[in-house]
Design brief:
- The complex is a heterodimer of chains A (258) and B (234).
- Chain A is of the alpha+beta class.
- Chain A has one domain.
- In chain A, 71% of the residues lie in helices and 7% in strands.
- Chain A is built from 7 helices and 4 strands.
- In chain A, strand 2 and strand 3 form a beta hairpin.
- In chain A, helix 2 packs antiparallel against helix 3, helix 3 packs antiparallel against helix 4 and helix 4 packs parallel to helix 7.
- The longest helix of chain A is centred in the N-terminal third of the chain and has 37 residues.
- The mean pLDDT of chain A is 89.
- Chain B is α/β, with parallel strands linked by helices.
- Chain B has a single domain, classed as 3-Layer(aba) Sandwich (Rossmann fold), CATH 3.40.50.
- Chain B contains 8 helices and 10 strands.
- In chain B, the strands form 2 sheets. Chain B has a 6-stranded mixed β-sheet with strand order 6-7-8-3-9-10, sandwiched between helices. A 4-stranded antiparallel β-sheet of chain B has the order 2-1-4-5, with helices on one face.
- In chain B, helix 3 packs antiparallel against helix 5.
- The chains are: A alpha+beta (258), B alpha/beta (234).
- Chains A and B meet through helix 1 of A and helix 2 of B.
Chain lengths: 258, 234
């Protein structure tokens, strides 16, 4: 049954994926032609970074395309598969599209670096290929994209659950925004509590970075201090987003009506 | 058997269904008749587990209806249901993968009967072909309950005739409980055993089609018109 859902969702997005990949290639070749014409090949990299960073929204967009395909009549809810399977299928297929696109972008970045490095258009330490940085970039983009994808699923389910209340229909978008802002603000507040900060600092792993860095999305923050990365925030973030996904599935089963 | 016990469905202050008490017995074919907005589709969606009652409960074979009821209920929706990007074959394969009671053998027979080409994209099908495909997908299931919501919607008389013949040929009479909502009463009358008139979310009248014909010499359409006339006069 789950295989059938995956196959259907793949067929629903296949054409969009092909068009997107062709667009990526077209943008790259235009950028490369422009850079070669200017005699400054490094000019291709802003375009590559634009394509890279677009991936953060590519996954939620792919997911929304799949959800939109179900909105006419919502027949998908008349299914032997529950909400978890239905939404997981959408998430996995959207993730597949995201990964295919990310791999293509990686290939284009590698080709560009292979050309740019020997010609001195780009400086890297010891003139080496920045593989480690590339992996980190891929991981960061994947994390960010998954964050927005899971939130997208949850907020989509809340939005459609509100269908049953005609009086709320006109303010649904406002409610969705309010829920997102409230949860983010509450998370940020909780993270400021000294006891929580102490607890987070109690379990770290050394990843060899000597500098202190911090990054995050919304209310979530992760930090590396003197090469130590805090593990609790990562684990809690994963658990929180899994709970968000399950909440979306529960809403789909119990509250979303046609 | 389908039981609706004191079922009410409210959207804000508006009642789409109002205290409905109905029993649909196993193996019978029922017609739900009524004007637009009378609550026919709401009732079907509720039996299909797509809508939840505000009050009361819907039971199918003693089991309270929820989303999992799809395993026992084959539902033909008046809108949606088929994905425009998929071919006829892909739609059939998808249904076969989702419903364990889907009979590929029956589907192959229905492809011939409905005169459909399996390689065609559903978006390229005419309205009549789409209607036939929907019926194929539902009739290929060997589910105890069939719910057909407006199976004739937007279909020309020739296609409607094919649909009725399809129903006669592929419904398992005596085993499957079938509920059909429609405005095309004349076409569907030969298939019906009982008819229910729904109006403003309430059951206005109910009849046995054969008894109506034999005892009162009336067709279902005449009975519907008479019932409405009486309703207006009273």
């Amino acid at each position: 049954m789950f295989q059938g859902l995956l196959k259907k969702d793949f067929l629903l997005i296949k054409n969009y994926l092909v068009v997107w990949l062709v667009l990526v290639l077209a943008l790259y070749f235009c950028a490369a032609a422009f850079a070669v014409y200017q005699g400054e090949f490094y000019l291709v990299f802003p375009f590559i970074f634009f394509i890279y960073f677009f991936h953060i929204v590519l996954l939620p967009i792919a997911e929304m395309v799949l959800l939109k395909a179900e909105e006419k009549g919502h027949y998908w809810l008349h299914s032997t598969a529950g909400g978890v399977k239905q939404l997981l299928s959408k998430l996995l297929i959207a993730f597949f599209a995201f990964i295919v696109s990310l791999i293509l972008t990686d290939l284009l970045a590698l080709i560009s670096l292979k050309i740019a490095l020997p010609q001195g258009f780009v400086d890297t330490p010891d003139n080496r290929m920045p593989y480690a940085e590339g992996i980190l970039l891929n991981m960061g983009l994947t994390g960010g994209a998954l964050y927005f994808a899971v939130w997208g699923l949850f907020l989509w389910a809340v939005y459609h659950s509100l269908n049953a209340y005609p009086t709320l229909k006109k303010i649904r978008w406002f409610l969705i925004l309010a829920i997102y802002i409230f949860i983010q603000a509450a998370t940020a507040k909780v993270l400021q509590i000294p006891l929580i900060q102490k607890w987070f600092a109690s379990w770290t792993m050394n990843i060899g970075e000597s500098e202190t860095k911090a990054w995050g999305i919304g209310g979530m923050h992760f930090s590396v201090e003197n090469g130590d990365i805090q593990l609790w925030p990562i684990i809690l973030s994963v658990i929180f987003h899994m709970a968000l996904f399950l909440a979306a599935a529960w809403l789909l089963n119990r509250k979303v009506e046609v | 058997m389908i039981e609706m016990r004191n079922v009410t469905k409210k959207y804000g202050k508006r009642k789409a269904l109002d205290s409905i008490d109905l029993i649909f017995e196993k193996g019978k074919v029922y017609g739900i008749l009524g004007p637009n907005g009378s609550g026919k589709s709401t009732m079907m969606k509720m039996a299909a587990g797509l809508l939840f009652p505000t009050k009361g409960e819907v039971l199918i074979n003693g089991q309270k209806v929820n989303r999992h009821i799809a395993k026992d209920v084959a539902y033909l929706a008046s809108e949606g249901m088929i994905y425009p990007g998929l071919t006829v074959r892909q739609m059939i394969d998808f249904f076969a993968s989702q419903y364990p009671d889907f009979s590929m053998e029956k589907a192959e027979e229905l492809i011939q009967f409905m005169n459909l080409e399996t390689h065609q994209k559903t978006a390229k099908l005419s309205k009549g072909q789409q209607g036939r495909l929907k019926l194929l997908l539902v009739l290929s299931r060997e589910a105890p309950v069939l719910l057909l919501d407006e199976p004739f919607l937007g279909l020309d008389p020739m296609v409607r005739d094919t649909v009725v013949k399809g129903l006669v040929s592929f419904i398992d009479f005596g085993e499957q409980t079938v509920i059909i909502t429609t405005h095309e009463i004349t076409e569907i009358e030969p298939v019906l055993e009982e008819a229910v008139i729904l109006d403003e979310g309430q059951v206005r009248a109910r009849c046995h089609v054969e008894a109506l014909r034999e005892e009162e010499g009336m067709s279902v359409l005449q009975w519907l018109k008479t019932t409405y006339k009486e309703g207006i006069n009273s």
